[in-house]
Amino acid sequence: IVDHRFRDDLVGFAQFGSADMDIVGIEYHIGFGIQKDGIFTGEDIAGLGYTQVSDNNSEEGVIDVFYGQNVSDWLNVKADLQYISSPGLNDDIDSALAFTLRFTSEF
Fold first, then answer.
1. pLDDT band at 41 (very low <50, low <70, confident <90, very high)
2. Measured distance CA(57)–CA(90) in Å, rounded
3. In angstroms, how far is CA 39 from the centroid of its own chain?
4. What residues have CB less than 8 Å from 89, skipping those under 6 apart?
5. 8 Å CB contact between 65 and 88
6. H or E element, residue 23
7. What is the mean pLDDT of residues 55-70?
8. Which of 37, 51, 94, 102 would bridge 78 by S-S if both were Cys, CB 3.0 to 4.6 A apart?
């Protein structure tokens, strides 16, 4: 895993992993992306990422776009949209869109 801060408000990452197919069922994983702080306010973040896994027969790819905002001292809301090709490493399944909305609180 490599993380790099290009500026105070911009971070990038890249990662690679491989495994024994007989044990895990996945040959490799790659991922990379960027995160920008302070898009609209000083308390928000936005990012874009890509990840791919392979099992020798198929590849699943995910494009991930997210936006998060601190709405109070103790509450953060993060929206995430993912485009998934070959879900479950199955080429017979149509690509999918997944949306999540996450609420995180700290006490």
1. confident
2. 9
3. 18
4. 53, 54, 55, 57, 58, 59, 60
5. no
6. helix 21-24
7. 93
8. 102
Q: Which two tokens stand for residue 75?
A: 């509450």
pLDDT tens, 8-23? 899 999 999 998 888 8
Distance CA 46, CA 53 (A): 24
SS3 71: coil
pLDDT at 66 over 90: yes
Under DSSP, is residue 89 helix (H, G, I), strand (E, B) or coil? Answer: helix
Side chain identity, residue 93: I
Looking at the DSSP assignment, which residues form a beta bridge with residue 34?
12, 48
Matching residue, tokens 């990662």: 15
Strand partners, 61: 52, 85
* DSSP per-residue string spanning 49-70: EEEEEE-SS-EEEEEEEEEEEE
Q: How many CB atoms lie within 10 A of CB 57?
A: 9
- Rounded Cα–Cα distance for residues 5 and 12 (Å): 6
